[in-house]
Amino acid sequence: MKNNKIAITYTTSILILTFFISAFLFQNVSAQETSGTNVVTNADTINKTENPTIKDLIYENKGEITSQTVLEGPTVQTSFSSNGTILNGINSIDVTEIGTYTTTPRSNGVVYGEGQGVITGKNNEIVTWSSQEIGIITPEKKIKFNGSIFFRSLSPIGNLAFLDNKMGIFTFEVDASKNTVTKVWDMS
Q1: What is the mean pLDDT of residues 31-51?
Q2: Domains identified in the chain and CATH numbers
């Protein structure tokens, strides 16, 4: 019973955190899309914010959607692969990634998603991740997600070990040609 209460409290905390982070990021996206002028991007806002809990960019990648499957009802499972760079201070580490996420439409063009994936470094270092995200579909047929991500390193030492138990916020975009772009900022 105690473990159930801890699990419920943890899940509730994650959902609340995801809501507030997504609301902050969507506010900036909405301002950009409606103003029609050059404004500061989400990435610039996050990197320059006075909020001490959002730290440096730690991961970025580019990839492509590799498959999509309709699950129950309107829920879609999407898989992708990408190549990217993990940033650890002044060091950058080239990595590959595979991931899968599900999306379920909600009202007003919003989609809710959950994902999981594996990042692999050159020396076969492995980091897994899980995420929760909220997305919107733009008039250009892009899907833009904002969410929270949790890393777990399977390598106790090495270049990617610093990601163990690290939390981040991210943006993930998919264009009409099924190309993906991800950026993750440190929140731990």
Answers
A1: 42
A2: 2-186 (2.40.160.20)
